[in-house]
Amino acid sequence: MSATISDGSGGGIFTGKRLRWLAAGIVLLNGFFPALWILATAFKSEIELTAKPITWIPHSPTLNNFIAAFRDQPLPHYLLNSAVVALSAMALSLFISALAAYAIARLNLKYRGAILTSIIAVSMFPLVTLMVPLFEIMRGLGLLNSYWALVLPYTVLNLPICTLILVSFFQDIPRDLENAAMIDGCTRLGALWRIVVPLAAPGVFTAGILAFVNAWDEFLLALSFNPAAAYRTLPVGIQMYQGEFSFPWPTISAALVIAMIPVVVVILIFQERVVSGLTSGGVKG
Amino acid sequence: MNDRHTPTPQRSLFDRLADMNETTLAALLLAPAFIFISIIVVYPVATLVWNSFNDVRLLTGAPSRWVGLENYLLLLADAQFWRATKNTMIIVLVTVPGSLVVGLGLALLANMPFKWRGPIRLSLLLPWATPLAFVGLIFAWFFHSEYGVFNDLLRRLGLAPQIWFNSPTLTMMAICIATIWKTSSFMALILLAGLQTIPKSLYEAADVDGASKWRQFTDITLPLLVPSMLVALIFRTLTAIQSFDIPYSMPGPGEETQTLAMYIHMNAVDYLDLGYSSALAVVMFGLSMATTFIYLRYVKADGK
Description:
Distance between the termini of chain B: 26 Å
Helix content of chain B: over 70%
Distance between the termini of chain A: 22 Å
Mean pLDDT of chain A: 87
Number of strands of chain B: 2
Largest sheet of chain A: none
Order of helices and strands of chain B: HHEEHHHHHHHHHHH
Strand content of chain B: under 5%
CATH topology of the largest domain in chain A: MetI-like fold
CATH superfamily of the largest domain in chain B: MetI-like
Oligomer: heterodimer
Structural class of chain B: mainly alpha
């Protein structure tokens, strides 16, 4: 926070305490309003929902919508599916990209740049483009409606960002530490496991969180490959509350509130990691 | 880079693996990544290109048949393809600049010296972390004709409420607003990081020279933000070309507001017409590559 256009002393476009409050208000309202509105809807009764003009804060909050959310769809099962898929993909992509990032950051390697670029190039392929042939392949292998149908693609889709973050963290670890460990009888892989990975833990965390959120949010592949109720992830399952002509909005809102809890917990706990991960990819390019 | 260590006495297979020649070790460590990429990206893309020249319909069960450019010719004459492409282009042209402008605004606001930065940062992270499919549903509810919050605001302002999802134009508007909300906060986070790398001394010097705040913004802030903007814009444009989740969750009348990604999904997953959907996907692939290429040229021209 040392260099900004608006740091008190240097003035700025927005000056003064009142303007600062206004600015904060706009940013907060923009970010939180949709979530708050869904929260309010989730607690409204059918009667209150259809009242005009609409009420902004529920007069007589009810839990019926939450009961309906669990009754109408197997919501816990969707949560479980999302968790299994996102956590497996996260673990797998962290493992694979840690190995690759170590080779790129530390080993005597020709074409280092080209190798990193070709991993990052994966993120340039449109997901929709990959979905069509993957659909045929998964169908041929009988993998539609299985965890593998999502875990495998999500793992690969996360490789670019994980590798990029881990390479920059590995490069920052002093080589001397690793050499010292090897002189003390550690093997190279032992040094990777005992010295480099623990020291790069913040990077591993950052990459892991981004991989988790990416997999948790994905919709197109989940909708295309796993439409069966037993393997639906949350984003797909949430869509199933609507009937052909009916949109039970309070129930959908209650389901959304529950579905958002894991992600909100993740960003509450790891907000600084998430921000540093997102911006390191962006600013360093 | 040459930190070859002296060979230690070999004890086990694991140790021997670890003490091998560095290049071999590097190849072994890189192998899983490249095997996965080959299976999930390279092989499928090759299949995609091959399928686009064939008649592959899983529904009939007939063996695939080489048809040359037929799928592509079909596509050029397909009004639904053109409509989907037009809708996609509208989303790109509206939401990419839209999220840049809104994101820049949010970044400038969030960059003010607040005491509690936590809530501000959370308010930028929440839209980023909300799944696109959820955003689509939330905004579909916002734009509900009877009980939606947008129409309520219009009524309170004395304006006529709209039946948003009965009109393709209004639906596209709603889709773009939802998309801009979802993506501008990511843009703001990137730009905020960029803002914080600009040395404060530049502004102090400008103050001494008596430059107005607006001049400082246009002559210092904006030019120095260009590198962060370009990177964010490449990814924003690529994701806008693939718009699926939000338009899928906010359907307009009939298939009027279908995007290219939705049309590809429909042909592949619903009709199981892999030949035609592959040709469509190749077109989208071309669009993405062209976009990346144009941006990269611009980045090079910019001297970065």
